[in-house]
Amino acid sequence: MAAHEHGAVLVPGGARFSVWAPGSQRVAVRAAGRDHPLAPKGRGWFEGEIRGLRDGAAYALVLDGGHVRPDPASRRQPEGVHGPSALFDPRRHAWTDARWRGLALEALVLYELHVGSFTQEGTLDAAAARLPDLVELGVTCVELMPVQPFAGERNWGYDGVSLRAVHEGYGGPAALQRFVDRAHALGLAVCLDVVFNHLGPEGNYLREFGPYFTDRHRSLWGDGLDYDGPRSGPIRQLMTGAALQWVRDFHVDALRLDATHAIEDGSPRHLVAEICDEVRELARAAERLVQVIAEDDRNDRRVLEPAPAGWGCSAVWADDLHHALHALLTGERERFLADYGRADQVRRALAEGFAYQGELSPFRGRPHGTDTRGLAPARFVTFLQNHDQVGNRPRGERLTSLVPWEALYPASALVLLGSGTPLLFMGEEYGETRPFQYFTSHGDAGLAGAVSEGRRGEFIAKGVEDVPDPQDPQTFARSRPTHRRDGRHAHLREHYRRLLALRRKHLTTIAARFPRVEVDGTAFTLRRDELVVRANLGAAPAAGLGPWGVAIDEAPRERAEPVDPPHTLTSGGGTGLAP
């Protein structure tokens, strides 16, 4: 174990512990029935080795005043976020993916899922059993919403507090290793959603260890993490170490960094840039392809630019295409959707990545975005739905509840055969009609009440009655997908499967450059030399397409099988799709 590296690691004959706790004069490890004092090493670090401890051994840290707390760098929390930590040896898993090297960015088709609700069992092992279905669909990378421990049994995952552990209800860290190994055996990459902009409100004991937070930075969750103060080194190391362990010990192929716009850091090298640099170096040494994908709502190309001008992320979530399509299809103009609703914004997002590239945003009241010239299309992650855009609606309605069923066909064609890296949200492919709602299960009664009341009072719920209570178990139960394969659901899934097959077939052309995009009323045409996609986002005929029609032409060099029966041939030997 390197000097001053957070956490516990098993060594021959025992375990070595390292804790940064400048807020305490003394730190001990409570394990095997007694307290073992750690030696102060200066600058707030305490270290020591305890003999006789093995994988799975429970331990806790004892601070001044006798406060017993879990390890901030714990790798396992078998009794929840308030209980003792446990030693975990990642070397015990017998990996079978020695030949796996990862996937290139342009080859990714992301499928975002929530482990707890994806199956009835709500475990990683149960989710792994469904991976063959995703392979058959054409997905190439499974993106897991955060799996780090949170309070209670139900949570989206963004209230995690042990950033290096896996929620025990999902199966714990060993289950994540099994999941990734199984995915790789099937040819699937795995992306893990990680959160470095805040910690959850319950089970977060960092303040008791030292100055991890500062009032110099404020966020939606209170004081910000101190990434740029005079004592910020150990705090940054806690986060970068977490990022590296997911790649090194769990073999994940990509990290999705949550809300990087909310990571306040005035350092010469931003925390995100540091994570990108260190992950890239680890991947290079291991001869693997590992991506770092940012969620950032600023449309700022600096997220993608290499250092020193930028952060060097592989890709960024590009919300504009979703917003533009959603506003056009639903007519909604509330909150940020006030900036959207015009066909030319859909066109620009398809043709250039961002719809806003410095123009005035009425919602924000200021210019928004930067130009995208010179950026490869695959560096923009695009989607028709995701957990935020569904679950942050007051009632969590999916697009299937907001637009005519037939509209799902042309909209999905534009996303999946556009040039961005496409992302599907679980259940989207067959038109899941159950909602995905915001759910929690906080054990602290005061916090639970505040969350329930706060959800009803949030701006997103203004004017909406009967907002689901996040603490109600039925809110979670309603959010479980049905995995339906009957009737129109089977038909839509086959449409998605064939679109993704076309994407694979023409991947070189799709990834090479943005398409030429034309607009004729409600009809959009994506033109490439070998592939022309036409989609009508309207209930009336437009540009030779029927209501909600889709036509795909692989002329002049070759013709594809029908993408979605029933079909009619269009001029030039293309395939017309009827929903």
Sum this structure up briefly.
Helix content is 26%, strand content 20%.
Question: What this model shows, in words?
Answer:
The protein has 15 helices and 27 strands. The chain is of the alpha/beta class and 579 residues long. The protein has 3 domains: 7-90, Sandwich (Immunoglobulin-like); 108-197 and 237-495, Glycosidases (TIM Barrel); 515-577, no CATH class. The strands form 6 sheets. It has an 8-stranded parallel barrel, surrounded by 4 helices. The radius of gyration is 24 Å and the shape is globular.
Output the CATH class name of the largest domain.
Answer: Alpha Beta
Measured distance between first and last alpha carbons:
59 Å
CATH architecture of the largest domain: Alpha-Beta Barrel
User: How many extended strands?
Assistant: 27
Q: How much beta, percentage-wise?
A: 15-25%
Low-confidence stretches: 558-579
Which word captures the global form?
globular
Give the count of structural domains.
3
Alpha plus pi helix count? 15
Q: Decide which structural class fits the backbone.
A: alpha/beta
Strand ordering within the main sheet: 10-11-12-15-16-17-20-21
